[in-house]
Amino acid sequence: MTSYFIRRFLLIIPTFLGITLVTFLILQFVPGGPLETALMQMRTGGQQGSEAGSTGTTQGIPQEAIEELKRFYGFDKPIYERYAIWIGNLVKLDLGTSYKYNEPVWDVITERFPVSIYFGLVGFLLTYIVCVPLGVYKAVKNGSAFDFVSSALVFIGYSIPGFAFGAMMLVLFGGGSFWDVFPLGGFRSEDWDNLSFMGKIWDQIHHTFLPVMSYMIGSFATLTILTKNSVIENLSQDYIRTAYSKGLSEKKVIFGHALRNSLIPISTGLGHAISLVLAGSFLIEKVFNINGMGLLGYQSILDRDYPVVMGILVISTLLLLIGNILSDILYAIVDPRIRFK
After folding, report:
1. When comparing pLDDT for 45 and 126, which is higher?
2. CATH T-level assignment (fold) for domain 113-291
3. Which residue, 178, 223, 230, 265, has fewest beta-carbon neighbours within 10 Å?
């Protein structure tokens, strides 16, 4: 099994190169890049005008200025050479400089890390804390009124997009036409530094509740139903009937035997917890005015800030590939019957 995981780790290299190469090529051919934008601003005196073609863009601009811009953005070299230079810098942990912020990409991305990690961890932990017990109780009460009503509510929540749910919650509880319970958005209050310790805790919870609910609403149904079905399947096994015949209580049979085996397919998802650093939806972050990784990635695409786009791609790709391997490792640990070759 060790050789299998060694091969999986080695496969990260060609997979990573393939993903980054395809994305790099696409970004180079997307119209409206940084060079075209700079030329348009020069032609219109710094004002945003209508889109111009390749012949109209250079009108009235000296060729020397165009060549200088190409050198500045690295477009004076062939694509394969630009990609090779980017890979070489990446090996040295240099993601380049942001076109928009004029700062190292690492600095631009790491500024959003605390927000992404915070919402990712809180949402992940609350999802498991709520959904696993709920799924177990639904399995025990399978076919009851509670099971039917809870399933209906869970799937209704699953059908509502997170950003739409967040907007609805702001209308209801954000001081709109109804109740003024939660702030309209932001990660913390402006007077955060002046608050007491308990005040900071309450302020953070106050700003966290609605965004986390919006993040979690889509994952409730999947994890809850997966837990329920897994517990129901194990409750019908022979070893459960044997446990009952030995006189064990229902609570001990469910939590000591059935639940332990039911968590095998659920625990494998823990490997993807490493990707929580990039958790977030740009739509949810836009609704709540949260400056996280999702909004940064979306805005960088709109601004054609290619170094930031590629930097986020590097981190997300590596986390996803490593997370897949960790899921396989956890699967082999929790289920001794699994043997990878």
Report:
1. 126
2. MetI-like fold (1.10.3720)
3. 178
